[in-house]
Design goal:
With 218 residues, the chain is of the alpha+beta class. The protein has one domain (21-217). The protein has two helices and 13 strands. The radius of gyration is 16 Å and the shape is globular.
Length: 218
């Protein structure tokens, strides 16, 4: 059944105009974090976008440019992202809860980099596309997408990227407790207008096909 689904997705994706090259992603420069809040910025061209994070549970730690680079080895550019998350820039979670990220202006197509989401149940409350996954710092795992396509269950040590297609002023996701799991966010561009629903579907399908081709080449 999974083989058939993959074949169908590949055939459909072939009808979509895919990017000729991967997209440069503006990943968050995390600048401070403690307790249940963190702050960072994304720079898209000449535009600086503030990222304010709040959590219903305490953060485990926040990396602001120093310490271990958990984004190595690079599984993060096997999809549509041209560049991996910035070294030693990450928010680490352990106690489950809800995380909300608010942006100083609307952004399009949010990229979420993941480190070690092992046996974790995640839901973004909006359509989600698995852009890449594979062997990362803590090992390997597979994100099993839920029935609504809004989240996943981490079967093993999930490392990779998921994308939330669309225009957002904020995003929220729920997650469950474990030793710890890390993430960061990036963006492909600043929102100029809200895409039509049909365009979002084509974008999501295109990213899925492109990621599958990149994984096969890897």
């Amino acid at each position: 059944m999974n083989c058939c689904k993959t074949l169908v997705a590949g055939l459909l994706a072939s009808a979509v105009s895919l990017p000729a090259a991967a997209l440069p992603i503006a990943w968050t420069d995390w600048q401070q974090g403690a307790g249940t809040t963190a702050f960072g910025q994304m720079t898209v061209g000449a535009t600086v976008i503030d990222v304010n994070l709040t959590s219903t549970s305490n953060l485990n730690f926040v990396q602001t440019g120093s310490g271990t680079n958990y984004w190595s080895p690079d599984v993060y550019t096997l999809g549509t992202a041209d560049n991996a998350p910035t070294a030693s820039e990450m928010v680490s979670l352990n106690a489950g809860g809800t995380v909300t990220l608010t942006f100083s202006q609307a952004i399009e197509n949010v990229y979420v980099g993941l480190v070690s989401w092992n046996n974790n149940t995640v839901d973004f409350g909006t359509s989600m596309v698995v852009d890449s996954y594979g062997y990362g710092y803590w090992g390997n795992g597979t994100p099993q997408v839920n029935g609504t396509g809004t989240g996943f269950y981490g079967a093993g040590e999930v490392h990779g990227v998921v994308v939330l297609p669309g225009s957002f002023n904020s995003i929220s996701f729920t997650h469950t407790s474990e030793g710890w799991h890390g993430f960061t966010i990036g963006v492909a561009g600043v929102a100029s207008a809200v895409p039509e629903p049909g365009a979002l579907s084509l974008l999501a399908l295109g990213m899925t096909g492109f990621a599958a081709r990149r994984r096969r080449r890897a």
